Write a sequence for this structure.
């Protein structure tokens, strides 16, 4: 009996080693909960679609919403002997120790989507979005319309979030610099991105007979909420309407509204970082070095803004999030 | 004149004094503000033609009553649960997301391109059923396992939105149909927003139930003294479960209103943080959060006060960064003014001034 058990165990071990040898590059990917948003869902899908066995990877995925669970997952991956760890951090702080452990173990760390507050030498590279640039792209587009006057209803997202700060910053800077640009009213979902709050803000502005010709909403849901208020009060919007509607995030449903001419602009916040990281890992594996990093070891994700007049079905299929 | 009113009515009236006063002060504040800035537009009610070509009423007052609909309906259910269980259900927002998800899912099964009245009814019935199952889960934990309501409902509070996500997946269905607009906004030909009617209907149904059954009395008895209720042949478990069933119906109705209002389902933000506002509405309405006697009208009034406050601050273009702080200050004042401690202090002061001997009335305040 003992002999059989020993034999089976030995066989299992041999098979395991063989499997490990046969498999590709061992990576551990730590992400956030896909239920969090359309963005996160697309991001998680992008990762699972890219780091596959066919593509030469042996990837393990961990999703956790809190920093301590993410740190646990990272330690697990280090103990597991992965070659690379990919992290989208729930919390920017508290990563130094784990990153140091990874570095000592010779593990390459790639940050995606979210930065951590740690010395750039502790990670190989970070692929992130520049929220301020998203705002600037949107404001530049708005300026290109050449309206005589810009009377803007500014609907801010979750206060203090990177997306809100970046997207608000560009607009506020422009309004401070240019007399033709005024923020008629501003409102927020406070600590959320609640579309219903956006609706109430637009509704209160209309009830007060406030005159505005641009809605600058900092995500798609809030733009939708504000547009519902316009519809209910009989104010036209979109390509042939009175009010220019702007949103962010490029959800599929929102891009469809662009295509239908109900909205005017949607700014992208790209959740697709897997391909870039995949290329970088392949470069390192082939003995090359990664180029194009800035002083913070970052690569800024390329992002677009879509105009209702030029958007195509193909754009929606390629860049739209969700279903 | 007060002495002629019987004691039960006096108790009920005194409960509404604070919310009525708060509403009065808010109206007065807006009136004075209007006079100072020389624009009484806050109170004006006008008409507009909406983008579907229908005449609709417009103005701040209409917006406030309309916006408060979902909150008022949930506050009614919350009042009953509070009265029977002496605690609150903090999962109504998350369960509302599940409810909305089921509603939209069933509509989608019928086809989102041609939403029909039977489809809407079926969706509402299905959503009601599922929601009641979830609220009964809470109810069972509270009434059978005797878990504190806040702890029991914490479970769905934290995982409810994930369940909603499991139901809808990554889809953000758009409900662009005239029928949906009729539920969430206005019915063509009727300029008053439909949600206002739904609040009235819900209020009438509950009032009718209280009129023809002893539910009100039983609920209050269970809330005040379970043991005494049991000795009198009332089953406290049943009464508590019943309050959760009614809450489930209220939550479904509120979720339906919000989904139809925004023509879209977002599991993350549907009825976001409504539980806090609903509890607040119950408290502002002068109901004891410890259970027992209750007044639905108080909670409904509380909902309108909360929305009036939000709308006033929005109308004043208060900076978004500080809007919640202002809201909190006003709410603290209202809640303190309605607190038993403050009331007894005031009545003591009143009696001192008038040299009247202390009556037994103060014993009724709890």
């Amino acid at each position: 009996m003992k002999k059989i058990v020993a034999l089976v165990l030995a066989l299992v071990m041999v098979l395991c080693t063989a499997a490990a040898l046969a498999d590709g590059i061992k990576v551990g990917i730590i992400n956030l909960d896909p239920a969090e948003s359309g963005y996160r869902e697309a991001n998680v899908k992008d990762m699972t679609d890219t780091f596959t066995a066919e593509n030469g990877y042996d990837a393990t995925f961990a999703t956790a919403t809190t920093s301590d669970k993410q740190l646990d997952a990272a330690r697990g991956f280090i103990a597991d002997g992965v070659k690379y760890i990919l992290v989208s951090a729930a919390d920017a702080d508290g990563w130094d120790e784990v990153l140091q452990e990874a570095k000592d173990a010779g593990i390459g760390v790639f940050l995606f989507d979210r930065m951590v507050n740690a010395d750039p030498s502790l990670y190989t590279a970070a692929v992130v979005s520049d929220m301020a640039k998203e705002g600037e792209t949107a404001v530049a587009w708005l300026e290109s319309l050449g309206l005589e006057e810009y009377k803007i209803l500014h609907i801010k997202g979750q206060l203090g979030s990177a997306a809100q700060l970046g997207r608000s910053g560009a607009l506020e800077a422009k309004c401070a610099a240019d007399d033709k640009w005024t923020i008629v009213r501003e409102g927020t979902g406070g600590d959320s991105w609640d579309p219903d709050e956006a609706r109430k803000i637009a509704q209160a502005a209309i009830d007060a007979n406030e005159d505005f010709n641009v809605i600058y909403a900092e995500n798609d849901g809030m733009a939708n909420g504000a547009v519902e208020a316009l519809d209910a009060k009989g104010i036209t919007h979109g390509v042939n309407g009175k009010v220019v509607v702007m949103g962010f995030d490029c959800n599929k449903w929102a891009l469809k509204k662009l295509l239908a001419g109900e909205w005017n602009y949607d700014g992208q916040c790209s959740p697709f970082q897997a391909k870039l990281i995949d290329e970088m890992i392949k470069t390192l594996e082939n003995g090359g070095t990664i180029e194009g990093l800035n002083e913070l070891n970052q690569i800024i994700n390329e992002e677009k803004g879509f105009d209702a007049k030029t958007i195509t079905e193909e754009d929606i299929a390629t860049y739209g999030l969700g279903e | 004149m007060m002495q002629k009113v019987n004691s039960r009515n006096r108790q009920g009236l005194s409960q509404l004094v604070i919310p009525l006063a708060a509403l009065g002060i808010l109206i007065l504040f807006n009136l004075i503000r209007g006079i100072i800035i020389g624009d009484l537009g806050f109170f004006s009610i006008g008409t507009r033609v909406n983008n579907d070509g229908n005449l609709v009423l417009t103005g701040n007052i209409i917006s406030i009553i309309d916006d408060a609909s979902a909150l008022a309906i949930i506050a009614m259910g919350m009042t009953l649960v509070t009265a029977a269980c002496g605690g609150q259900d903090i999962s109504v927002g998350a369960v509302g997301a599940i409810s909305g998800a089921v509603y939209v899912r069933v509509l989608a099964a019928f086809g989102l391109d041609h939403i029909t009245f039977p489809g809407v009814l079926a969706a509402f019935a299905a959503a009601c059923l599922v929601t009641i199952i979830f609220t009964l889960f809470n109810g069972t934990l509270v009434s059978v396992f005797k878990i504190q309501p806040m702890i029991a409902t914490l479970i769905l509070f934290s995982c409810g939105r994930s369940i909603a996500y499991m139901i809808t997946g990554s889809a953000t269905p758009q409900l662009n149909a005239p029928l949906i607009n009729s539920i969430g906004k206005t019915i063509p030909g009727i300029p008053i927003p439909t949600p206002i009617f739904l609040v009235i209907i819900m209020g009438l149904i509950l009032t009718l139930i209280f009129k023809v059954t002893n539910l009100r009395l039983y609920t209050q008895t269970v809330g005040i003294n379970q043991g005494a209720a049991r000795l009198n042949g009332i089953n406290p478990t049943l009464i508590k479960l019943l309050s959760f069933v009614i809450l489930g119906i209220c939550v479904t109705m509120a979720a339906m209103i919000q989904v139809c209002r925004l023509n879209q389902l977002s599991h993350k933000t549907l009825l976001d943080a409504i539980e806090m506002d609903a509890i607040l509405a119950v408290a502002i309405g002068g109901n004891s959060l410890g259970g027992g006697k209750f007044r639905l009208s108080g909670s409904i009034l509380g909902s309108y006060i909360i929305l009036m406050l939000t709308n006033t601050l929005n109308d004043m273009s208060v900076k978004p960064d500080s809007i919640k702080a202002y809201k909190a200050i006003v709410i603290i004042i209202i809640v303190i003014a309605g607190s038993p401690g403050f009331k007894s202090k005031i009545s003591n002061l009143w009696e001192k001034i008038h040299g009247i001997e202390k009556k037994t009335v103060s014993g009724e305040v709890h």
Q: What stands out?
A: Chain A has two domains: 23-129+271-291, 131-269+305-319. The interface with chain B takes residues 33, 35-38, 41, 156, 159, 185-190, 192-196, 199-201, 203-204, 206-209, 221, 224-225, 228, 230-236, 251-253, 256, 322-323 of chain A (CB under 8 Å). The first helix of chain A runs from residue 2 to 22.
